[in-house]
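To close the section, here is one more complete example, presented without commentary so you can practise reading it yourself. The ligand is uridine-5'-diphosphate-glucose.
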Amino acid sequence: MKIAVVGTGYVGLVSGACFADVGIEVTCVDIDQKKIEKLKNGIMPIYEPGLEEIVVRNYKSGRLNFSTDLGEAIQGASVAFIAVGTPPGEDGSADLKYVLAVADEIGQKMTDYIVVATKSTVPVTTGEKVRGAIKNALDKRGSDLPFAVASNPEFLKEGAAVEDFLKPDRIVIGVDDERAEEIMKRLYKPFQLSGERIIYMDIPSAEMTKYAANSMLATKISFMNDIANLCEKVGADANMVRKGIGSDPRIGNKFIYPGVGYGGSCFPKDVKAIIKTAKQYGYDLRVLQAVEDVNDDQKHVLANKVKAHFGEDLSGMTFAMWGLSFKPNTDDMREAPAGVIIDELRAAGATVKAYDPVAMEEAKEHYLFDKVTYCNDAYDALVDADALLLVTEWSEFRIPSWEVVGKLLKNKLIFDGRNIYDKKYLKTLGFEVYNIGTK
Ligand SMILES: NC(=O)c1ccc[n+]([C@@H]2O[C@H](COP(=O)([O-])OP(=O)(O)OC[C@H]3O[C@@H](n4cnc5c(N)ncnc54)[C@H](O)[C@@H]3O)[C@@H](O)[C@H]2O)c1
Ligand SMILES: O=c1ccn([C@@H]2O[C@H](COP(=O)(O)OP(=O)(O)O[C@H]3O[C@H](CO)[C@@H](O)[C@H](O)[C@H]3O)[C@@H](O)[C@H]2O)c(=O)[nH]1
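Output:
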């Protein structure tokens, strides 16, 4: 079986490599020539645990190819996945220009029946727009080649993307064509050896499922951040409350960790986009509006605690920051809370020395430029700093040498934005720790 994956970013590259790993012949296509050249030379454009190994292995075996030529890639392919970006437009709605450009190009270049499956996160009705763009391009050629569209939203998490793709909780397929359904079933068979994982539905429902899933997860996080902030005021412990509610299977113990707010390339943009979709249909998604508002405020909580401790004016002060990426195990800086915290500290007159195990290049080149001093390791960031701010919970920050930390910092003072440190234990070592709602 042969497929093409158009867009070789987090989703396209992981999906393409994982499909190749189960024996499918895959061509990953991108318009970014440099990215394609790098991949052909075994250089990964992103940091994702386990990815390099399966990309290199499958490229060497010839099952995984990289190309900038979409026409060639879809020759003989049963499925063309669209996995390009859908960034927020100015009004918050998902910008479909990349998705529709690919659909148009497929229509121009296809030579046989093909299933065009959208993996990008797209609002309801996009399936029809994709169908229209392909049909339009075929009409211009005077062609009536048959094709099908499908919606196959992706649920992988960055930092665990390969694992998530190879062992999915579920595979959602929105489809309205029997032949396409059979092809998708064959394609995904290897990913459900431990039990049926595919949920078939109509295309609009599949599109909506993706937004509803991300919105539900974002809601859990904002809810818990709200509760943690209240815990702090009333003298309760958010860690205890988390365990107490998470043990109820109706609530579940995942995605209820309070912190400095959710970031990344998905939750912020997808919550915005579904709010916008609802507005277009004359409906207000009030819960999600609150989820977004709470999250915007939560990104300021750590800097506010710094100011509450030292005062509003932080002139001449230096803060060490551990972690920049929006979550551990990724170099992705998109919508990372670190950016908001850094801006706030700088606006109050402080300087920031930062260390992140993998995201510093990305931060330097695209996001924070020279807003912070980038340090060689975690301890280097602490030298002469007035306090430590823990922003991303990378494993290597969990058990540092407290003796060294205490010697390097000017004050034994920590602002823990992810609740990874034991306040009571650190108190015995002379540290004062502020965090998100725990005692
Ligand atoms: N990042 C995630 O964890 C994740 C998970 C699930 C779903 N999604 C969704 O998947 C989509 C892609 O996200 P991403 O993070 O992989 O994006 P990305 O920005 O990492 O990658 C998109 C790629 O598409 C390429 N591209 C753009 N136009 C193209 C064209 N006409 N032809 C070929 N290639 C083209 C870009 O050069 C880029 O390499 C988005 O809709 C996103 O919401 C992302
Ligand atoms: O209890 C929690 C869990 C997560 N987060 C934060 O939430 C954000 C998102 O984390 P996560 O969901 O793990 O990473 P993403 O890679 O953004 O994955 C989400 O977005 C993807 C893109 O749509 C979906 O495919 C995934 O299923 C969905 O989890 C990060 O800033 C985390 O720090 C918390 O603050 N508390």
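Once you have examined the tokens, check your reading against these statements. Residues 6-12, 29-32, 35, 83-86, 98, 101-102, 120-121, 154, 156, 158, 265-266 surround nicotinamide-adenine-dinucleotide (ligand 1) (CB under 6 Å). The first strand starts at residue 2 and ends at 6.
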